[in-house]
Amino acid sequence: MTTTTALATAPPAGLPAGAVAPVPLTRLTLVELRKLADTRAGMWLLIVIGVATAATSAIVLGWAEASGQTFGALYGFGLLPSSVLLPVLGILSVTSEWSQRTALATFTLVPARGRVLAAKVSAGVLIAIGSAAATAVWAAAANLLAIALGGDGTWTMDSSLIWQSLLLQVIFVLMGVGFGALLLNTPLAIVIFFALPTVWTILGETISGLRDVAAWLDINVTSQALGQPDMASGEWARLGVSTALWVLLPLLLGTVRVLRREVS
Amino acid sequence: MIEVRNLTKTYGAQRAVDDVSFTCEPGTVTGFLGPNGAGKSTTMRMICGLTPPTSGRATVGGVPYQRLGSPGRHVGVLLDASAQHAGRTGREVLALAAMTMGLDTARVPERLARVGLTGAAPKRRVRAYSLGMRQRLGLAYAMIGDPAVLILDEPANGLDPEGIHWMRGLLRDFADRGGTVLLSSHLLREVEVIADRLVVIGSGRILTQGDKKDLLGAAGTLVRTTDPAALAALLQRMGITGTPSVDGSVLVPSDPQTIGQAAAAAGVVLLELRPAGAGGLEEMFLRLTAGSDFEGAAR
């Protein structure tokens, strides 16, 4: 960034200051958030997530035992649709730039490609948190209904579960962004995103020699601990290692790929 | 102001762009001419930092494009009108650009109207746009940050005759108010009317460049000989660079009398010696680019 600051202090003649200063990351993040929802595909994905989340509450209210109709159950089950589908939005946010060729326009307006990717990561984190918050509000409303309908309606939930559920959402959205950046191809990234960890899980369960490794590297297994209150330090360590493999590594390699790839 | 210095891009063994240099001054329209695959788009992508050059450099406003934090406020770019998300509305495409540059999105409807996208068009998705409408949207996109420089790749593509006429007026007016325009085309006629300067490229190399008036006036002399090597040696002694054509003739930037006398003195047999003609520019363009078609299109 030293070059930019040097330029900012002494802009060449005729260059407006607005053209020299980098676009603030907050503004870029807002743009990326908006881009998640302003296409037909993105909008429908969000609508589907909303409807499916509403359906989870309906299922709990309609079919669960009265004792199981608690805020914690409604919230936990309600996060399922977004934890599965929000990563697809994360994938699309990167891959659509290449499949729809908008990268050309995006990177001519913001040549610092790393900043665009950073904004996509921030937008992914924000939409994950936002969806969890919306699910909590919805679950609360459903819990009120449960109380009215004679359900258990317990409000208490272990506070650790709030942070852990947020983390779960964020991890999977960023995994989507990472896979998108690494593969830069929508159908491929979606298929690999869903298939590869599952294949790994199956391999880990069938091949005895892999079982110990899978306990550390299978994100489907390690992330299950996030659903239980008060994770142990060993569980955190396993989650950290598998997250490094499935989230950080794709993000890192994907960033290198996006920075290097010729845009045409 | 755009400065291109010795830009070269190689893909494997192939030189898509070979040592290209030119300058676009404020207040002028520069026509970047060449057949398909001559290296126009690759050169423009290198100017805009989308393709890393193998060697050489390009600056816009004295600065490499990548060092502009928010280039849209200084340089408007339209490289491919079809490269917009099909699922976004035209209005949304411009709104995103305005937001990115930190501009009020309230200017969007007026900017769309300025390029003739009115009525239902702004609310329709780009998928439903014709190529001409996409070009108009692309022009609005390039100009929304009120830039001083415009870089446009084949902007007349898909526009109807009325649209081309309109675009010429728009760009002429932009340049007359001090703007710098670089626009590419594979059709001479498209840029002949509007360009002040021409840069002609073929097979990745600059074939000729200069003021349109000079190029039109001095299309040169067409020379055909039985002994090309002797003619080349003669021209070299005279300090003149001839441009060989695939049909064996050579376009020489000199008058017929000078060449004829020199050839007679040197004993070089001439088969043909005539002024390149009043329609010289087109002839020159065709001659210069003949044979270079599609050579660079493999990319």
Automatic annotation (TrEMBL), chain A:
The keyword GTP-binding does not apply. It comes from Actinoplanes couchii. This is ABC transporter permease. The keyword Transmembrane applies. The chain crosses the membrane at residues 43-64, 70-92, 123-149, 161-184, 191-210, 236-259. Keywords: Membrane, Transmembrane, Transmembrane helix.
From TrEMBL, chain B:
It comes from Actinoplanes couchii. InterPro entries: AAA+_ATPase (IPR003593), ABC_transporter-like_ATP-bd (IPR003439), P-loop_NTPase (IPR027417). It comes from the Bacteria. Residues 2-228 form the ABC transporter domain. Transmembrane segments: none annotated. Keywords: ATP-binding, Nucleotide-binding, Transport. The keyword DNA-binding does not apply. Belongs to the ABC transporter superfamily. PANTHER family: ABC TRANSPORTER, ATP-BINDING PROTEIN. This is ABC transporter.
